[in-house]
């Protein structure tokens, strides 16, 4: 199943995922990504919680052929505060 990129980005970018904010939507962002990975065909898609960091979203997408190489993609989905702008 494909997800229109504009729809995905419109929803994804609306999450308040500032790590340092007392109130953020990190858990909701993780669940959104897990759901999207499932829709895209992930055979495994889960959220892994830890005590000291934001949850990791883990997904497995099977290769089309048995001899295909394994690829690992790692990224973060939380962001830093915009202010103070002078420090950017």
UniProtKB/TrEMBL annotation:
<dbReference type="GO" id="GO:0008233">
    <property type="term" value="F:peptidase activity"/>
</dbReference>
<keyword id="KW-0479">Metal-binding</keyword>
<dbReference type="GO" id="GO:0046872">
    <property type="term" value="F:metal ion binding"/>
</dbReference>
<keyword id="KW-0378">Hydrolase</keyword>
<keyword id="KW-0645">Protease</keyword>
<dbReference type="GO" id="GO:0006508">
    <property type="term" value="P:proteolysis"/>
</dbReference>
<protein>
    <submittedName>
        <fullName>Acetylornithine deacetylase/succinyl-diaminopimelate desuccinylase-like protein</fullName>
    </submittedName>
</protein>
<dbReference type="InterPro" id="IPR051458">
    <property type="entry name" value="Cyt/Met_Dipeptidase"/>
</dbReference>
């Amino acid at each position: 199943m494909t997800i229109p990129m504009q729809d995905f980005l419109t929803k994804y970018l609306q999450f308040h995922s500032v790590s340092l904010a007392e109130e953020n939507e990190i858990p909701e962002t993780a669940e959104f990504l897990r759901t999207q990975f499932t829709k895209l065909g992930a055979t495994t898609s889960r959220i892994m919680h830890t005590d000291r960091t934001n949850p990791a979203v883990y997904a497995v997408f099977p290769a089309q052929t048995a001899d295909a190489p394994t690829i690992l993609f790692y990224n973060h989905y939380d962001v830093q505060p915009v202010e103070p702008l002078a420090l950017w």
